[in-house]
Amino acid sequence: MSGIIREKRNPIQGSIHKRVPQRPATVPTDIYISKKSKTQAIIKRVKRLMLKENHKTVTIHGLGAMILRAMSMALEAQLALQDQITLKPTTETITLIDDIIPEDMVGES
User: Fold this and answer.
1) What is the per-residue pLDDT for 12?
2) Alpha carbon of residue 105 to chain centroid
3) Which pLDDT does position 30 carry in this prediction?
4) Is this model's pTM higher than 0.90 or not?
5) From the centroid of its chain, how far is CA 108?
6) For residues 99 and 109, what is the distance between their CA atoms, to the nearest angstrom?
7) How far apart are CA 14 and CA 24, in angstroms?
8) Contact (CB, 8 A) for 74 and 87
């Protein structure tokens, strides 16, 4: 490794645009949690899906900071259904893409 010269990269000048994560095709029992999701509305939806529509499973999805919130909502749904449901937390990794827009291109369209 003595023959390799490494140079420090210049910091990127520009703005970062975060793309919306791609979701697979959803089914009615998939519930995605966002900052705007209301806890009581999610619990009501879980109750409706499980009790009135007789679905066996409901999947609550959370990404990043919403993972904790999704778990909290699942626990609240379990309490609201008086422990009639079992929680099975799982994790997976998805690929996210951010676009870096150079400063000289900002404002051009």
Assistant:
1) 66
2) 30
3) 93
4) no
5) 31
6) 16
7) 31
8) yes
Distance CA 69, CA 79 (A): 15
Helix (H) or strand (E) holding 99: strand 98-102
What's the CA dihedral at 81, 62, 41, 55 to 10 degrees? -50
In angstroms, the first-to-last Cα distance of the chain is 46
Which segments of the chain have a pLDDT < 50?
none
Q: Are strands 98-102 and 30-32 parallel, antiparallel or unpaired?
A: unpaired
Output the six-digit token pair for 89. Answer: 């937390």
**Rounded Cα gap, residues 63 and 96, in angstroms:** 11
Q: Which two tokens stand for residue 7?
A: 């140079």
pLDDT score recorded for residue 97: 86
Give the amino acid at 41: A
Give CA angle at 80 (77, 85), nearest 5°: 60
Structure tokens at 41: 């509305």
The answer to whether the beta carbons of residues 33 and 62 sit under 8 Å apart is yes
Q: Where are the alpha helices (DSSP H) in the chain?
A: 39-47, 66-80
